[in-house]
Amino acid sequence: MECLTKDSLLKFMQWFVAFRKPIDIWSNHSSYLIIEIVTYFFAVLTFRHAYRLGGRYMFLWFAIIAHGLTVESVSYFVPDIDNFWHAQSMIMLLGKRLPLHIIFFYPVFLYTAGVAAARLKLPFWAEPFAHGLAVVAMDVPFDIMGIKSLWWTWHDTDPNIYDRHYWVPWTSYFFHMSFASSLNILINGSRKLLTGSSSKIESKGCFKEMMCVIITGLFSFPLGALQFVLLYHPLHDNLHIHTEVCVFILVAIYICIVWNADRNPDDGARPKKGKKWLDEIGLLVSLHFMLYILLTVNSKPENIRSIGLHEPTGNCNATTPVYTAMGQVLSKKTYLCTTEYDEAYYDWHCLTGGKPPKDGMEWYTICGNAFPNHTEYIVVVTAFSLIGLFYYWQMCARSGKDQTRGKKMKKS
């Protein structure tokens, strides 16, 4: 085939995968190298748990990977939601947009949270919402320190991420909850529909299980987006209500559903004696929350230099329409205006003369800024980490066990 020339294949491979020396990351962006390596370790823990239990746990792990690939790919190539840029890690994919370790962040968060939520032994209609709460509990300290540490950057004027919490878009929390609950609904719902079994462990054949993996991987995104359509877009876009309010409403709905279901627990939901909980999942969440406390205490973001792809710079007056799921047309600036922007977690102080990059650039260096109030960040991240650890301790240490072969699940 003429189109498959050596040059075209080489160009594709250069677009598909790129590498960066670890020493370069360590010199300019040390916390990013640390989180990349830690992510691979955490992902191995989740895979080991899935492999040890086998059956549907393995298929759940791969469904989450498929879901992550779908979310990340769509986010880069659909203009209306292309609003963030990852920092450059050791291995980059898809035109240097997707760090390899980000793919494995999905099982680190979603698999861990899903296994922990399943131990509550909630009815099928409540478990997805416990899953969503468990994911956002892990996410809050990660999101706060991630943006402060320049592990990624956000579009400056996109209306869907304009409302912030320590520079984290409130919609990020909404995203984590809604997409996690949707994944849970689809993986368990497709299993029940296609195999007639709601077991967490007993596989019903590779073909049917892979169909469930594909369905979950492809359709968790649109099902999660449906929650935005039902709650976020009417309140935010039509009634101009702050996104913070939308998130708290969603959290309250999730808590009420989980709390209501947990008032009448399954027989296996309460251990009659203490149980060992520091398995792969317990170890992961313990290390996860301790990591962010230590990172916040010891981090010096003013020393960070993030070199890579960022929001394109250009004409400060150019605008681009943003089409919402409700059919409205909003607006954002087409380019980052380097002389007038509102992203206080970075600037240009580490560049020669403190001068910003020229217009028409996508690959440039940004400089981290010091904590405006370091003590406040320590208190906030520590508080959210301890709350998250407490929630996981309740699920992992004071609830039921993972379903194993030979143990039938009580029907809800």
UniProtKB/TrEMBL annotation:
Source gene? LOC100378455
| Name of the protein in question | Uncharacterized protein LOC100378455
Pfam families for this protein: DUF7802 (PF25085)
Membrane-spanning intervals of the chain: 29-47, 59-78, 98-117, 129-147, 167-189, 210-233, 239-261, 281-299, 377-393
InterPro entries under this entry? DUF7802 (IPR056704)
Cite the DUF7802 domain residue spans from the record: 9-396
Sorted keywords for this record are:
Membrane, Transmembrane, Transmembrane helix
State the organism named in the record. Saccoglossus kowalevskii (Acorn worm)
Output the PANTHER family linked to this UniProt entry: AGAP005361-PA (PTHR35982), SPIROCYCLASE, AVEC FAMILY (PTHR35982:SF1)
